Amino acid sequence: MSLIGRTRARGVETLSLDSPGNRNALSAALVGELSDALTDCAKDTDVRAVVLTHTGNTFSAGADLRDPPHPDALVGLLRQIVELPRPVLARVTGHVRAGGLGLLAACDIAAAAHTASFAFTEVRIGVAPAVISLPLLPRTDPRALARYYLTGERFDAPEAARIGLLTAAGDDVDAVLEPILDGLRRSAPEALAETKRLLTARVLESFDRDAGRLTALSARLFASPQAREGMTAFLERRDPSWVV
């Protein structure tokens, strides 16, 4: 059974994270299927833009703790979104946690309904938002990231737009995206690709400079005793031992 739904309308390919049973957590299988779908979109000249969305009430709960992707695979997926020669838009109507926020930051444009919520929950299970910082740090307000990275607090869609995680938020996310998609359909494909390269150059510099270091950090933290305690506590629905 596929974990990625695919539809197309007027040159826009919609890829839906379709694993609602685990809240679209980023498993090794889901990351692999999404990467394959993006590869197809990059090769297909009929695709003018890609919309990344979800089924269920969660865009993505972050890494699948039972079947996590290798950090290198997640780096590869995020870079693939940034480098795709088509604009990639995130469409969010539910909750986004941890690694799912890396997908949003990698997209060129991200829109969410006011019902969406966001949180960098890594510190609460004993790890850090390492790999997802590659697209996040260049694109998001640093003071806001300091607060939300360090506390794991939940924040809403208007706040996500204020700090640069989202392009826009509204009561009806499709109404928000409609004029954006219309503009992309009216834009010349080669011009779009070259304009995207201008916009993503700084983000790709962070991948070139920091990917190896952050991948190693992620692997080290996920193998740590605190991470084992944090993940066990999460799965057992209890506070980890360090909570005071």
Automatic annotation (TrEMBL):
Domain of life assignment: Bacteria
Gene Ontology MF terms: catalytic activity
SUPFAM superfamilies: ClpP/crotonase
Entry's family note: Belongs to the enoyl-CoA hydratase/isomerase family.
Listed PANTHER family: ENOYL-COA HYDRATASE, POLYKETIDE BIOSYNTHESIS ENOYL-COA HYDRATASE PKSH-RELATED
Protein name: Cyclohexa-1,5-dienecarbonyl-CoA hydratase
Protein species of origin: Streptomyces davaonensis (strain DSM 101723 / JCM 4913 / KCC S-0913 / 768)
Lineage: Bacteria, Bacillati, Actinomycetota, Actinomycetes, Kitasatosporales
